[in-house]
Input
Amino acid sequence: MSTTTLRGVALAATLTAALACSTNRTADSPRAQTPAAEVESSADPGGSGAALARVDGAAAGWASSGFAASSHWDDGKAEVVRYAGTRSRYGQRRDFEMTVIHVKEEFDAAKLVKSDWPERAETLQVIKSNVVFSMPTENYPYNLSSGTFMRRDNPSSLVKLTTTSHEWCGITTKNLDLRGDTPALKYRSYFESEGEGEFDLSEWPEGGVAEEQLVFAVRDLKFEEGLKVPVTVLSRQLESHARTPTWRPGELVVVDTRTVKDAGGKDHEVWHVEARLGGDTLSYDVGVAAPHLLVRFDGTEGASMVLEEATRWAYWDFSKPSPF
Output
């Protein structure tokens, strides 16, 4: 192969990678595989199997304002927000910066991954919620990320959840798989006592949601003081261990409106929402004005998020550098 040809192949690969996150690919964009519609599949327009249908059915009672389904998410951009984050680790409070990305995506309804062929495959629209941060310690940082995917027409209905933790000791990954007959949390851990396997979540409860899911889902609530929504919250999966998941029954309560400060000291009028889960309380301060940004979150074990800055940005477009 000539040098010129090799350079051409390299350039094509680079462009393909740069376009990989784009939400508005054209029909003739490069693809890496056969379109899903041309592969034999048991998928139907509503989902990939019994597990997904079970989780969707359990979430039917959500009190939605329609925010997730609104045109706000149709401008071809992502919402990118930076937060001042804290967590406790090794008995100390750890401060760090975290990034949260929300964007509309088309999901292949059988594979439950972002569709390369949304115009030709059976798809469902989701809101992707990615959380990424690096938490320092005295010796090395913990790098954690989660990807939570919710139905756009009902963000209390979970479609997929993936988390990863990597640091100098090793890597742990977890994936909530809803492609089969029953929900299962599959994991690979570097700890001997955990190893590799899956947790059976076939007894998915009514009102079942993931803790990671609520970072976005609470913004879709039909805010009204005193509103109560029954929920059962899956234990936090954005961790370096793959421990047996647990459920905490309780309710989401829209308590009141109040004024809170962001990380820069600016005042925001917010709805104060609490997830009251037995002895645990997760609190969410959500902007009264659209787009109802999460201004502050306080959770268990010293976890918190405080808004620093936000923008709408096509972060996959390398002709548009970061606005931060």
